[in-house]
Amino acid sequence: MTETQAPLTQGQTYILGHVDSELDRLINQAHFYSDLTMHVLQLAGLKAGMRVLDIGCGAGDVSFLAAKLVGPKGTVIGVDKAPEAIALASRRASSARLTNLQFLNGDVLELRLEEPVDALIGRLVLMYFPNPAAVLRRLLGFVKPGGIVVFQEMDMEASRSEPACDLFETSLQRIKQTFTRAGVDILTSLKLSRIFQESGLPAPRMIQGARVESGPDSPAYEQVTQITRTLLPLMERTGVATAAKVDIETLTARLREEVLARNATLVSPGMIGAWTRKI
Description:
single chain; alpha/beta; Rossmann fold; 7-stranded mixed β-sheet; 3-stranded antiparallel β-sheet; 9 helices; 10 strands; 41% helix
C-alpha cells in the first residue's frame, strides 16, 4: 500500500502528552523558534485581513504569530485535539485581549468549518501523522483556490556542536532514538516537498533556519533538558536510556559547563518551512 493509498486515520496519540509541564515546555520552545516561524509565515504571504486555519495549535503560539500578520480585520482559527491545550490557548488570547483568535477542540480529521480559509498553517504537526499527505489532502478542502498552505517541521539531524560536545550530542541522539522508536518520522521535514505534491499541491518553496547558541545564558541548555524530561519515561520504556544515566536534575548545568569549557557553539535542530498555493 502506498502512502497515497493508505487509510486516513489519526494514528498514534501525541507522544509528548498535554500535562501542564509539557504545555509550559511547548510555550518555551515556541519562543525559542518564534523568529524562524514568523519569517516563514511572512515569506508564505500571510497578510492583513486573511482567514487562517492553524492545525495542531497546542497552546496557541503559532496562532498568535499569525494573528499579528492578519491584524484585527483577519481571523485565526486554532484547532487541537487536547482540551487542556485549547483551554490554555483561549486563556492566553483572552489575557492578551486578542479578538481575532478562535480556538476549537477537536480532531483535525473530523473538523468542519462553515467558511473556507485563505491560509492553512501548522508547525511540528505533520510528523505525528503516519500518513501526512492524506491528512493534508483532506485539510485542503477548507482552503480557497489560490490559498496559502505553509508548514514548518524540525530537521533533528541538522543540529550539531563545534567543537563537538559529547553530552550535547548524546542528549540529541537519545531524543532522536526515542521519537523513532515511538513511531514518529523524524525526517518529515525533509519530505515536505513530496508530502505537498502527494496531497495534490504544487511543489513548495522551502527554507531552513536554525538557532545558533553559545555562552552561559543560552536557552539551548534548558531546551534540551525540557524535551528530555518529557521523553524520559518513554526513553526508559523503549530502552534508549535509564533515568539514572540521564540524571535529568543536573543535565542543564552539565550541558552549560561542557559548552563553556570548550568555548563551543551549538546549532539547534533546523526548522524547515515549506509553502505553496492551492491550485
